[in-house]
Design brief:
about 130 residues, mainly alpha, 2 helices, rod-shaped
Length: about 130
């Protein structure tokens, strides 16, 4: 009977090992399937998130584009206006200098007396403030 008992025990052990192996395989397959399903869901969710981000960026770019163009046009207009004013001032300065040269050439004595008078006034103002 001990041989039969040992044989039954060995058979039972083999049966339990086979069942444990089958159960482990089923559990591993179920875990693998669950991971694959979660991976597909995560990929789909990530795709939706990325597409949403792209759509949002596209909408912002569509709205920002015209505003940037308006600002650029305004800056160009301001630059042209300032350039025109600077040219006008440069021309005015040249005209004024030419006018002063002509006045000094036509009335040299008056120009020297005016310069001396201005010098005296500046000297008095600076010496009285000390």
């Amino acid at each position: 009977m001990t041989t039969t008992t040992a044989s039954n025990f060995s058979s039972t052990t083999d049966n339990l090992a086979t069942r444990a192996d089958a159960t482990t395989t089923k559990a591993a397959d179920a875990a693998h399937d669950a991971i694959a399903t979660a991976d597909k869901k995560a990929d789909a969710m990530l795709d939706r998130l990325v597409q949403g981000a792209h759509d949002t960026i596209d909408r912002l770019a569509e709205k920002a584009g015209p505003a940037v163009e308006r600002i650029s046009a305004s800056a160009d207009s301001a630059r042209e206006t300032i350039r025109g004013k600077a040219d006008d001032l440069s021309e005015l300065q040249q005209e004024w200098m030419e006018s002063m040269r002509t006045t000094v050439r036509e009335n040299p004595l008056t120009a020297v007396l005016a310069a001396a008078a201005i010098g005296v006034i500046v000297a008095k103002l600076t010496s009285s403030s000390r």
